[in-house]
């Protein structure tokens, strides 16, 4: 360099001397910058090649039930497991001097640079495979000089620390193929439903052509354009001597079997359930959904595949297929709160709105157990009687309220709580609500975990509050488990892609929230909806499904003009089903009104078919007695029917039924 400066000083022509000094400074600056960049790259070391991986869901028994595919799908394969036709064609099309340059193709850069200068834009690209891989790993696809400089620096680091095959493998596993698909294996499975190693030359060349413009060259969206791109690639391969004339002819004329739809969720089990899992993951991890989807987590859920399949089967069998009626259903373990099955609608592909967790609908008579729990806690017994007849209630503000029973049926006499609950008498419920006060009913419902808005009004006894299926199933679980608080959940364990457990659901310490005696008595009263011995002026509400039931269940149905509910439980499973229309249109057809009960009954019986019968266990201080369900007195041999009822010791009936006497 000193010699060069001395030689320049000998030049007599002053402008030339200044020019050469300037050139020397520029050259020194460039060389210095290059050395600095190389040194900086060496100091930073090899860039991390880890890429986003799909979070995968597993059922409670470890079976894979689905993989996050709503945003992107990836499946990594090693280079020696990639079709040679895909490799060779990709190199020829994207970067034919890939194995001969050091990350940058100077000829392509100069040609592209001239075109960009002429058009005053950055439209013409000259990125090598290394640069594209760097962009896939670390950068966005925005067209700015800043991004291109970063891309060049990352490409330099890749070339310094990794061999060509590693870079090519990474590129082929991260390139975007449209429809949220990244990597050659995922693309092959998506477009052709086969492994990439099984692709023909025709299929491989079509696949290689997609990344250039994934939307325009998608064979699903634009088959003609994709085929034209494929033929151009095959022409290129033939002209460069990479394939023979025969291979070219056969490939251009081969008929391609391409999937007809871009739907990627069709093989996922329980998609509504998986959406609930995602919401829970966001809460647990405090991460954004996109980050969770691509973090490669392995999530063990509470899903019971057998229960889910039975719930789906029951829905398919009993939900009318000639209407737009929807369904929301949850099956839950009442002991620990694990959601074992869930359906959020009639068809996930048509609507992803989850009617089991997101929708809030009027509860109807399924709300009455909260009322009668309060009543049992405040002096009522199974034989407490009130008169069932048309009644106009005058409220504190001077207004009147006149509820009615189903189809206008009334006993026109005293009825017991046992019968009122079994036949769902509305007059009895409103009288009880006004006696206890609506504010007490609100307090009782909150004790069961209901958090939805509730107005303390007389009609609340008839379920005018709008609630979710999840809320109601969780509330009924407290009856099934003897009155202990329980929180529903779907995520059992979260592991990283490396197998590190970062979350494990802790077995809750169940706090006794409800009075055990009142809870047990109410549960026994709720078995009455299936007992025809409680028939009278109306039939018990579960009579239509009772003949199909072979185990002990407690439950309550509920109906409004536009909602049909059935929630019931055994000792180890609670299932709640809602059916109705999204637009709140009235349920007028008989089969529409009965669908919720039939779905529930089919589900519960299928799940319990191989289980030993079990009964609800009475806590201490409970006494049983056979009672005439009409009068509420102790049954005698002369009573037409009797039912075993339960009481807190000391509150049981002391007198015998006098309604049934021998005829003299």
From TrEMBL:
Keyword Membrane among UniProt keywords: yes
GO molecular function: penicillin binding; peptidoglycan glycosyltransferase activity; serine-type D-Ala-D-Ala carboxypeptidase activity
Location of this chain's protein in the cell: Cell membrane
Domain Glycosyl transferase family: 63-235
Gene Ontology terms describing biological process: cell wall organization; peptidoglycan biosynthetic process; proteolysis; regulation of cell shape
Predominant subcellular localization, coarse grouping: membrane
InterPro entries for the chain: Beta-lactam/transpept-like, Glyco_trans_51, Glycosyltr_51/Transpeptidase, Lysozyme-like_dom_sf, PBP_transglycosylase, PCN-bd_Tpept
Name this protein carries in UniProt: 1A family penicillin-binding protein
Annotated TM spans: 20-43
The organism of origin for this protein: Paraliobacillus ryukyuensis
Gene3D superfamilies according to UniProt: Biosynthetic peptidoglycan transglycosylase-like, DD-peptidase/beta-lactamase superfamily
